[in-house]
Amino acid sequence: MSRPVRIALVTVSLLLLAAGAVVVALALASRRVPAFYREALEAEPAVLRAGGDRMVKQIAALVGDVQKQGRWQAVFTEEEINGYLAAELFAQHPELLPATVSDPRVRIEPESLAVAFRYRDPSWEGVVWLAVDLYPVEPNVVALRIRKARAGALPLPLQDILDQIALATDQLDWEVAWRQADGDPVAQVTIPPLGPRGTRIVQVDVLRLEQGRIVLAGTTKGR
């Protein structure tokens, strides 16, 4: 074998090895699980059930309060929300999430929210997670600014995520307007102001993310 041919073969072999290493690294990165999600999945089933039960009661109480005239407020903790997502969501509202999504969980911090879930289809399986800023723009208008979308540790194209958000808000019959903030997509969601059968005007004027909890408050007026 001549020296040029040997050099060419060695070069090709090195390139193939390098390409293989890149593929393996990408595969491993795409399957990386965020620490907050791993911790949430390790919660005891009894803790999740108890949190889910409290969330159901909180929702029922909020629905009742919103139907009455006057000021109302609700506080939902991270433990309650994750318990509801684990124990109640798919049983009560299976239509809200596509079949490719399972095990959603959240981490709540001041002014920001991390959402993660397992994604599975014929082409890929792994954990998808989003970093979202959630804040009120004006009464009954809430902004969701998507700062990150990842498949494991790899950046994820946002269009599929945006389509799912649009689908979910369509099902709730909420108006959504899309904006940009320094290159980040922002969904401005308008919550319908009319209460049940249009007999009440419901105004949401507080939506605040604190460490481990969401505070929601507003006022209901008669028409």
What does this 3D model show about the protein?
This protein is of the alpha+beta class and 223 residues long. The protein has one domain (33-222). Helix content is 38%, strand content 40%. Strands 2, 3, 4, 5, 6, 7 and 8 form a seven-stranded antiparallel beta sheet that branches. A three-stranded antiparallel beta sheet has the order 1-10-9. A hairpin with a 2-residue loop joins strand 5 (141-151) and strand 6. The longest helix is centred in the first third of the chain and has 28 residues, at 3-30. The chain is globular, with a radius of gyration of 23 Å. The termini are far apart.
Low-confidence stretches: 1-30
Order of secondary-structure elements? HHHEHHEEEEEHEEEE
Gyration radius (Cα, Å) is: 23 Å
Percent of residues in helices comes to 25-40%
The percent range for strand residues is: 35-45%
Main sheet characteristics: 7 strands, antiparallel
Outline: globular
Number of strands: 10
Distance between the termini: 92 Å
The number of domains is: 1
Please identify the structural class as seen in this structure.
alpha+beta
Q: Helix count?
A: 6
What number is the mean pLDDT? Answer: 77
